[in-house]
Amino acid sequence: MNLILLGPPGAGKGTQAAKIVEKYNIPHISTGDIFRANIKEGTELGKKAQEYMNKGELVPDELVVEIATDRLKKDDCKDGFLLDGFPRTVFQAEKLDEFLTAQGKKVDHVLDIDVDKEELMVRLTGRRVCKTCGASFHVVNIPPKKEGICDACGAELVQRADDNEETAANRIEVYNKETKPLIDYYEKAGNIAHIDGTIGLENVFNKIVEIVGE
Ligand code: AP5
Ligand code: ZN
């Protein structure tokens, strides 16, 4: 199954991705996670990406397309994958289609999770992520059992550098300008489903399973 998660920052893509990849046993490919790992390791790619991410701007297309398609060439993507945060521009979507077509593949479902701006801001500014395993929590919506500590591995929870008010608000604007047109793009392709992201974590996941199948 070849899946794409679409939706504004804070819609719950990463949260649902963790459940989807477990159920369907496919790799989770998040361009944001790849960049954050590179920033942590201090690579050249990380240095380049950080400039854009800290401002809430998109990393340039050429860089992202190369990273994503390189990842998709790996063996574990042979029977399916879940893309989270890629594509994010029409250019990226076209390049992805070219890449998949050349391999005789296609996108099976685009899952578009929608949440209004006010709720997005609450979610982004309240998010805390595990320093070690990357698990994601929310100070109010999805609190860890022990404040500031990851349920999964016991490490410290921190706030993402781009989750402050100003950067979060800019990310939502950039989404509306650059990424929202993708809804039309996939509407034309006829493989997009829209999911209300405010109906609760489990309900969102149940909708996804309804769309993708058991
Ligand atoms: P990226 O890492 O992709 O971030 P994003 O798209 O901004 O998405 P987020 O991770 O912020 O949100 P999410 O939808 O995954 O929400 P989550 O599940 O955590 O990108 C970061 C940056 O990298 C970009 O700004 C850009 O610079 C660069 N980049 C990455 N890909 C790129 C690309 N293709 N092209 C160019 N640049 C790129 O949930 C959010 C919070 O809400 C959490 O606290 C969670 O616990 C809570 N929550 C989740 N679900 C629910 C629910 N149902 N009810 C209540 N609370 C919930
Ligand atoms: Zn952890």
UniProtKB/TrEMBL annotation:
Annotated spans, LID: 126-163
Binding residues annotated for ATP, in chain numbering: 10-15, 127, 136-137, 199
InterPro entries the UniProt entry points to: Adenyl_kin_sub, Adenylat/UMP-CMP_kin, Adenylat_kinase_CS, Adenylate_kinase_lid-dom, P-loop_NTPase
Listed pathway(s): Purine metabolism; AMP biosynthesis via salvage pathway; AMP from ADP: step 1/1
Residues involved in AMP binding: 31, 36, 57-59, 85-88, 92, 160, 171
GO molecular function: AMP kinase activity; ATP binding; zinc ion binding
Keywords: ATP-binding, Cytoplasm, Kinase, Metal-binding, Nucleotide biosynthesis, Nucleotide-binding, Transferase, Zinc
Free-text note on domains in this protein's UniProt record: Consists of three domains, a large central CORE domain and two small peripheral domains, NMPbind and LID, which undergo movements during catalysis. The LID domain closes over the site of phosphoryl transfer upon ATP binding. Assembling and dissambling the active center during each catalytic cycle provides an effective means to prevent ATP hydrolysis. Some bacteria have evolved a zinc-coordinating structure that stabilizes the LID domain.
UniProt cross-references to PANTHER family, sorted A to Z: NUCLEOTIDE KINASE
Quaternary structure and interacting proteins, as annotated: Monomer.
Family under the similarity heading: Belongs to the adenylate kinase family.
Protein name according to UniProt: Adenylate kinase
Originating species: Lentihominibacter faecis
Name of the encoding gene: adk
